[in-house]
């Protein structure tokens, strides 16, 4: 069953086409990642799912229905521009948000469980204004999920979080998926999307350019990536036949090789120049695929 179905949707703002003839399906019980550059149409698409915006053309169906007006209580939404009632106490505010969708007897234990789950139990009786930015983001996440929605939409949930809190939110999202929720989230964190998402959707200049599982996306590009760790850096890897591009990460260099090139010969040539500590012939990372599509080389693949 598909929880969200978008069919041939176009949305414009004045002369700007934010989303152009977009179709996609979000299956039940999966984590579906939205990726794309700033201004590509991710947030606009999420807002159309939420009925904040309506498409100019096409249809958006959630739980099999095309609706207008207030969004369903079955959906939890964490917007990119977030806000909390700063003068309210945290537990009181979360009970208020949860009570908009469910009975107090159901919400109160869930509020306490989530405060404990996200390491905020000691802060429940403090005012929102006393929270750090990271704590505020965790409280906003709780407000989104405390009513146990069937569909959870998170717009950039990891932005601004330190690694510890990002890991806490990541684990909470996986827990929700394991309990049957469907999760859609947008992110600029390619490594997080690569590790978490069952499906990856990429939008570029309002158009869909990727929409499939990570494995099938990587298979499309093949094993054209060579990762080398060694002494000498990228300068000593210049002018090697079959190497199309070098992405320098300091101690590690990521080489994109042509399809007809022999990676063994490239490795042998590099080993004749420097001491190699490790090497790997691999499929490209999601980050690399993202750069290929959204970066300077976008014209090569934006019809993939």
Describe this structure in words.
With 304 residues, the protein is α/β, with parallel strands linked by helices. The chain folds into 2 domains: 2-218, Rossmann fold; 223-282, Alpha-Beta Plaits, CATH 3.30.70. The protein contains 10 helices and 13 strands. A hairpin with a 2-residue loop joins β1 and β2 (16-27). It starts with a strand and ends with a helix. Mean pLDDT is 89; it is low at 297-304.
Assign the CATH superfamily of the largest domain: P-loop containing nucleotide triphosphate hydrolases
- SSE pattern, N- to C-terminal: EEEHEEHHHEHEHEEHEEEHEHH
Overall helicity: 25-40%
* Poorly predicted regions: 297-304
Q: What percentage of the residues does DSSP assign to strands (E)?
A: 25-35%
The whole-angstrom Rg is 22 Å
Treating each run of at least 4 consecutive H or I residues as one helix, how many helices?
A: 10
What does the average pLDDT come to?
Answer: 89
CATH class of the largest domain: Alpha Beta
Report the CATH topology name of the largest domain: Rossmann fold
CATH architecture assignment of the largest domain? 3-Layer(aba) Sandwich
Going by helix content, strand content and strand pairing, the class is alpha/beta
Global geometry: globular
Distance between the termini: 26 Å
The biggest beta sheet, please? Answer: 6 strands, mixed
């Amino acid at each position: 069953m598909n929880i969200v179905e978008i069919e041939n949707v176009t949305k414009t703002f004045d002369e700007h086409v934010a989303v152009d003839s977009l179709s996609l399906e979000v299956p039940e019980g999966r984590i579906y990642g939205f990726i794309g550059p700033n201004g590509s149409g991710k947030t606009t698409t999420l807002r159309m799912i939420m009925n904040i915006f309506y498409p100019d053309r096409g249809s958006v169906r959630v739980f099999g229905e095309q609706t207008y007006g207030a969004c369903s209580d079955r959906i939890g939404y964490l917007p990119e521009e977030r806000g909390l009632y700063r003068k309210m106490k945290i537990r009181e505010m979360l009970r208020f948000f949860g009570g908009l969708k469910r009975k107090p007897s159901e919400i109160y234990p869930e509020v306490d469980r989530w405060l404990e789950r996200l390491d905020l139990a000691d802060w429940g009786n403090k005012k929102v204004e006393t929270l750090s930015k990271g704590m505020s983001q965790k409280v906003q996440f709780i407000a989104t999920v405390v009513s146990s929605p069937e569909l959870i939409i998170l717009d950039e949930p990891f932005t601004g979080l330190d690694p510890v809190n990002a890991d806490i939110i990541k684990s909470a999202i996986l827990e929700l998926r394991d309990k049957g929720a469907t999760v859609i989230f947008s992110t600029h964190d390619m490594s997080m999307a690569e590790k978490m998402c069952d499906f990856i959707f990429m939008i570029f200049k309002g158009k869909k350019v990727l929409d499939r599982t990570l494995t099938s996306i990587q298979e499309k590009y093949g094993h054209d990536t060579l990762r080398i760790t060694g002494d000498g850096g990228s300068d000593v890897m210049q002018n090697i036949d079959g190497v199309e591009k070098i992405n320098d990460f300091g101690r590690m260099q990521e080489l994109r090789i042509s399809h007809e090139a022999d990676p063994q010969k490239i490795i042998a040539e590099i080993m004749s120049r420097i001491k190699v500590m490790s090497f790997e012939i691999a499929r490209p990372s999601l980050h690399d695929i993202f750069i290929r599509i959204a970066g300077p080389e976008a014209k090569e693949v934006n019809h993939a």
